[in-house]
Design goal:
The protein is of the alpha/beta class. The protein has one domain: 3-Layer(aba) Sandwich (Rossmann fold). It is built from nine helices and eight strands.
Length: 266
């Protein structure tokens, strides 16, 4: 695992995480799962099911979001015959604990394991696509590297190769913390990811500049990769500005990778 201990400092974490405790009752078409990640600490995950036989996307959200924010967004995925599972982080929504980068990475494995087990218990599809938005790209890349045989594809929205790029871009006070070592370790892992990958990024994203998407595309080991740039979109309006391009690309990517994987299995 990449060592984030050097940057798991309260001074830096206040720039990286923006936890909110907002949490809504579970919508009618959804169900919740609490995943134990530590002594007395549970992470909240919500399954938005639009189609019982449809594919599932495991989604790790951005740093200022919570699971409940997707109560109104999930029907947009359902319109494309996609089911959505959204996972929180420590300290977010109904989840306990305090967020750190180390726990963010470690917790993703427990979340992945328990989500697949819950799908199996409910006789639903257990094959997953993992998706990360912004901060969530850290968790998505972590699972994509470690669980390539169990995943069908990787989707990155407004993501970055390493958190170091964002720390430097936003001029966070992190001098002398071995950032270059962390950045190189992240790039080495990305080169070893061979899952089909879809990258979506806003052309005018100032928070996570477009070059991050291009670097992801360049370093990914897979030959099955696509970079979709949404013209005029920024970091937080990418879905709104590029609505049709965004969801059509998602649906097309999942349908294609699903067919390829099934043909390989047969």
């Amino acid at each position: 695992m990449i060592d984030y201990s050097q940057v798991d400092h309260p001074l830096l974490l206040q720039y990286i995480f923006y936890p909110r405790k907002d949490f809504t009752p579970c919508p009618q078409n959804a169900f919740d799962l609490s995943v134990r990640v530590g002594e007395g600490i549970f992470i909240s995950c919500r399954f938005y099911m639009g189609h019982s036989k449809g594919p599932w996307i495991l989604f790790f959200h951005g740093n200022g979001e919570v699971v409940s924010d997707y109560d109104e967004i999930s029907p947009l995925y359902h319109q494309k015959n996609l089911n959505l599972i959204v996972a929180d982080y420590r300290g977010y929504g109904a989840s306990g604990g305090v967020p750190t980068l180390t726990d963010l990475v470690q917790d993703s494995h427990a979340i992945f394991k328990e989500i697949r087990a819950e799908l199996a218990r409910r006789n639903l599809r257990t094959d997953l696509w993992v998706m990360g938005r912004s901060l969530g790209s850290i968790s998505a890349l972590e699972l994509a590297y470690h669980h390539q045989e169990a995943l069908k594809g990787l989707i990155l929205e407004s993501g970055f190769p390493s958190v170091v790029r964002i720390m430097v871009h936003l001029e966070m006070p992190a001098h002398g913390m071995g950032l270059e070592k962390i950045d190189q370790a992240c790039l080495e892992r990305i080169r070893k990811i061979f899952l089909p990958t879809l990258i979506i990024h806003g052309e005018q994203d100032w928070l996570v500049p477009l070059q991050n998407a291009r670097d992801l595309y360049h370093h990914l080991g897979t030959g099955e990769k696509e970079l979709l740039i949404i013209p005029s979109a920024t970091h937080n309006d990418i879905m709104l500005v590029g609505f049709n391009e965004y969801f059509n690309a998602l649906q097309r990517f999942i349908q294609k990778t699903d067919r390829v994987k099934r043909s390989q299995e047969n």
